[in-house]
Structures are given as C-alpha cells and as structure tokens.
Design brief:
It is a single chain. The chain is mainly β. The chain folds into two domains: about 45 residues, no CATH class; about 100 residues, Beta Barrel (Lipocalin). It is about 15% helix and about 45% strand. It contains two helices and eight strands. The chain has an eight-stranded antiparallel beta barrel with strand order 1-2-3-4-5-6-7-8. Strand 2 and strand 3 form a beta hairpin. The longest helix is centred in the first third of the chain and has 17 residues. The chain is elongated and about 85 Å long.
C-alpha cells in the first residue's frame, strides 16, 4: 500500500511540474517565432497564425562593442595600440569613446545612408585633438576600418570581439 501511494505522489508531482509549460522560440529582437505549418488536411493551430497578446514590443537595447586601434604609420606607432568603445544604440547611431595619450576623445558613429554596413565615426578631445574614422561592419557585432587623427597618426580599427 505504501509503495503504490509513493508512485501516485511521484506521478502527480511530475505531472504538476510539467503541466502548463510551453516553449516558444524567440527571434533576436525578442519577438516570438511562430512555426509555419504547410496547408493540408490538418487544421493549423491558432498559435501558429495569431501573435501572442502578451508580447510587448520593446525598444532596442544598446550594445557596447570594444574597439582596438592599431598604428598604421610612424606617428601612430609612437602612441601604440589604443582601446576604446563604441556603444551601438541599435538605431543607426552610436557613441564612440577612446583615450589618446591621456586625452579622452568622444563623439559619435553613424551608419552611411543607403549602406547599412558602412559608417563614419568622429571624436573630439578637450585639448582640441580630433579623430575621423570610416568603418564597415561585417556582422552586427564586428567590423573593421581606418582612423585618422589631427596629429597625422593613422590607425586600423577592429570593432567587436
């Protein structure tokens, strides 16, 4: 009698733990991905055609990318490699920031209209130093380009991991 009661309790617990759960795949933007079912004699479930009412669209989340700048001429080699960040606002614009020989340069990065992979970035420091960059993103999280500083230094930039 005791063994059958344990089996019933264990079975009830397993059924309770697994009931009411449903796995719904989501896309990169957080929206649910509904399965597509081919037309045929079977009825298409309601969840395959109607969006969930509980899904609430949200604003894009900014993503911080590391930027490494490697010297590409003699003037830049005096300073060496630089490191900075690009905060991608996921709107076609971003914030660009780096330390150049103790001077903080900050500015913005913008995608080129009509070319979602290409962009330009500009930064300016408190001592009057400025930097202009052109880049191309190979993925949403990686890219390469070139940067020129008002001092004549030139760098190759690598964005992302």
């Amino acid at each position: 009698m005791s063994t059958s009661r344990r089996v019933v309790v264990a079975g009830s617990f397993a059924a309770l733990a697994l009931s009411g759960c449903m796995v719904v795949p989501i896309a990169a933007d957080g929206s649910p991905v509904y399965p597509t079912i081919a037309a045929g004699p079977y009825r298409t479930p309601a969840y395959a055609t109607a969006p969930a009412t509980a899904a609430v669209p949200s604003a894009p989340v900014p993503n911080v990318l590391q930027a490494r700048l490697y010297p590409s001429n003699e003037i830049a080699s005096r300073t060496g490699m630089l490191a900075g960040t690009v905060t991608n606002m996921m709107t076609g614009k971003g914030q660009f920031q780096l330390d150049l020989a103790g001077e903080l340069l900050s500015g913005e990065a913008t995608r080129v209209p009509g070319n979602e992979r290409a962009g330009v970035a500009s930064a300016y420091g408190s001592r009057g130093t400025y930097m202009n960059c052109e880049y191309r993103m190979t993925t949403p999280y990686q890219g390469t380009g070139t940067c020129k500083v008002s001092t004549g230094a030139q760098y190759q930039v690598h964005i992302g991991v």
